[in-house]
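dumping these here so i dont lose them again. two proteins, back to back, each one seq then structure tokens. dont judge the mess
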Amino acid sequence: MADRRKDATDRRTGGTPAVTRVTLRDVAKIAGVSHQTVSRAINGKGEIDPQTQRRVLEVARELRYRPSRFGRGLARPDVTSVGVIVPDVVNPFFPEFIAGVIKAADSREWQVVVASTENDPSREPALVRSLGQQVDAIVGYLSYPDEDLDPYVGGVPLVIVDRGLDSSTYGLVQVDTATGIRAAVRHLIDRGHRRIAMIDCDSVCDPAARRRIFHDLAGEHDLPVDDSLIVVGDQSIAGGDAAFVRMREANPDATAVLAFNDLVAIGALQAARRIGVRVPDDCALVGYDGLTIGELIDPPLTTVHLDKRRLGELAIGQVDRLLSDELPPPSVLTPHLIVRRTT
């Protein structure tokens, strides 16, 4: 087992990719079980011993075994399909990400199937399993760690987007969140702000990432940060509205707010206007994500811009290499600050 783990690590760090496709019988031989047992373990059938299932899945993962959906008659062998799992198709961030996936897939003449967890992370494992039985690979905004996803993946190539955790098993697309938050905070400091608040939200990816980075930067620049300056709200315009009101009641002297995303920032702007706080004269405002809608509001929103279509393209690039039996290093997307009139 140690040798198989080393093989996975070698592929992650640029070792020579495997050229021979692993078969179900290869897994059975190394696991010391029949190929029927391997099939039942991979497909989540309940009539085998749990310890045996864990052993089979461990061997399958280490060998990077990928079950053939063509053998089950689920698709034409000349068409590659990719499943995409996002938390919310209504949030304008994710349609742009999906558009990037589709563009990159189209250039390879692949098909794309989209599914949503409807902002319910508990749905992730079941979606991974069901979608994995229909497609050649999966790209997903998934919060579960590898060990919790493994029983549901069943050997299908998987790319995880912006989870905040490393992996020696799956493809990764990471967002350099620290660089984005750092640019926003430095911009506010350069504008003379010292009392900076944050509206944070629970996230599918890494729930406290922005908060941790914000705290670290505050320490670096000797900024005052207490619990009342960080308010957690829902990831929506209404959530941003309510969070801004709470923050302002607790900290009327706060002169700037960094919002979790642009929707939250728009909600904060809406609340500021309603309660008589002038943006940016009384309180500056920075969003995150770079949604097109941020250009259309008045005043236009300063934001940390993330190229969402490029994010989708990078995910498909990871899929391409996984389908060639190579485990590539993570792809990293770095956001940049766009300064508009809310600061």
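---- next one ----
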Amino acid sequence: MFKKVLLVAVLMFSFEATASADTLYEVKKGDSLTSIAKTYKKTVNDLLIWNKLTKDSIFVKQKLIVQKPIIGKTTIKAPQTVAAAKPVAPIKTEPIVQPVQVKAEQLITSPAPLLDEAKQLSSNGQAIYNLAVEFAGRMEGIPYLNAGITMAGFDCSGFIYFVYTQAGLKISRQSSESYFNSSASVSNPLVGDLVFFENTYGVGISHMGIYIGNNEFIHAGTKGVEKATLDLPYWKEHFVSFKRFHAVSVN
């Protein structure tokens, strides 16, 4: 009976995740922020806030959030009548930091890496992963922007920050090296885990992306948000490891 109830809960989340991620609009020639707002019965100010824009200028193929982002609805609770259901422990999260444009040298770094092996993904973590991967795939084509954390453009760690916070994970804006140092190593990666590289444009941990299965990952590279394969010689040479945020694991 419990297995049946859990399956229904998972299916219900899958529908919610898709619906939440289905809030993007790709700008077409002739569009304006005013016309898009009118089409979706929103205000221009709504679109400015949701997309973290400081002005109303937009460009063709830019992806805009046109519905209010739904964050934090990822906890799955079993019905109280099912005795065998084990309650999901609350996830320990970092304090929310207001998004700001920062230079690379200003990003937070940790003093030493954590070498512990990642714990099993929690049910809440799986829900976050599902939405994060779905949302990341819809970001393809957004241009690269140094220190970028908005739909106008991303750098690699800014992309990670934006995607996972939109999926409901409470993390602060950090550098790739700091994310590496504050996450746990993974021997067998799951779709949604992090992938790290070293000595790309800088010495040490300098690039990261999201693992999407089949030895592929999605990341914000110099050509913008794109998918890539770890089978390419360049990525093989610079690959370091797969890792997992502590907050998506069981306690």
